[in-house]
Amino acid sequence: MSYAYLFKYIIIGDTGVGKSCLLLQFTDKRFQPVHDLTIGVEFGARMINIDSKQIKLQIWDTAGQESFRSITRSYYRGAAGALLVYDITRRETFNHLASWLEDARQHANPNMTIMLIGNKSDLTHRRAVTTEEGEQFAKEHGLIFLETSARTAHNVEDAFINTAREIYRKIQDGVFDVSNESYGIKVGYGAGASGQPVAKVGEEPKKTGGCC
Ligand SMILES: Nc1nc2c(ncn2[C@@H]2O[C@H](COP(=O)(O)OP(=O)(O)O)[C@@H](O)[C@H]2O)c(=O)[nH]1
Ligand SMILES: [Mg+2]
Fold this sequence. Notes:
By secondary structure, this protein is an alpha/beta fold. The protein contains six helices and seven strands; from the N terminus they run E-H-E-E-H-E-H-H-E-H-E-H-E.
């Protein structure tokens, strides 16, 4: 299926916070209580619509364990968006956010959009991190924030779609050189009848050589 843009996302955060479940809920609209541990990196894709444009999200789901951190790092570079996930019932996953952000800042492009997600919002009786703490952390670090439940699907669509809206807004504002795929954005064909690339917005002259 044709698209106006393709955005690459990466999902990061500690093991067990629900990264794979969030991806499955978004791509397949189902919750799988027992999910195999993600080994290395897996990916899913789904088409969404923003501003009457078809946008394909290509989402890379990473393993949270320290032993896979170096593999994960190599995926930051080509990502336009990141979902940084913690588990509202496990405070240590919230405490580790700073180290995940440090990794992202070091390895990703500086304009990558980061959505902070407090997952497992259905487990209210086991909550260990308040919504206000999540909001505060997001505000301090310039992130967008939502609490989600991969189990009930609460806010899962919004988490992925709001991130895409923000990336789309940055394209409109000319923040990215969209001809440079290392930003995690690909301009597609087909939304227009003319067969021309749909987006010319924010395009800059093509860079030669080097990266990023
Ligand atoms: N109650 C509840 N459990 C969840 C939710 N998301 C994930 N889980 C559970 O948390 C565990 C870890 O999920 P998984 O997606 O494998 O975590 P990952 O290691 O971050 O990919 C699994 O047992 C899931 O069933 C959620 O929103 N609510
Ligand atoms: Mg996983």
